[in-house]
Amino acid sequence: MTDPEDRADPLTQWVNQVSDELGIDHGDVDVALLLDVARDAAHGVVRPAAPVTTYLLG
User: Fold this and answer.
1) Residue 53 · residue 38 · CB < 8 Å
2) Which pLDDT score is estimated for 3?
3) Is 4 inside any structural domain?
4) What global pTM score does this model have?
5) What letter would DSSP give residue 27?
6) How far apart are CA 20 and CA 49, in angstroms?
7) Rounded to an integer, what distance in angstroms lies between the CA atom of residue 41 and that of residue 25?
8) What is the pLDDT of residues 8-25, one digit of tens each?
9) Domain, as residue range, for 52
10) What is the structure's pLDDT at 30?
């Protein structure tokens, strides 16, 4: 049987790996929301605001 993780896109694989390392449940990570917030910060403020804003969201 193939592991579903093997078929996941690279971003999902990376998020799952980092979540595991940090002890965060995969279901607690809303990647779409984080990407939306990062986009809005990058386009509405300055590009470096994207990672800073997502960090501040915690």
Assistant:
1) yes
2) 61
3) no
4) 0.76
5) G
6) 26
7) 26
8) 799 999 999 999 999 999
9) 25-58
10) 95
Distance from C-alpha of 21 to C-alpha of 44, rounded to nearest angstrom: 32
Residue 52 counted as domain residue: yes
Residue 18: inside a domain: no
The confidence score (pLDDT) of residue 8 equals 76
**Residue range 39-45: average pLDDT?**
98
Task: Give me the chain's average pLDDT, please.
Answer: 91
* Number of compact structural domains in the chain: 1
How many whole angstroms separate alpha carbon 38 and alpha carbon 21? 23
User: Is residue 43 one of the residues assigned to a domain?
Assistant: yes
Nearest to 53 by CA among 41, 45, 36, 39: 41
Give the CA radius of gyration of the chain: 14
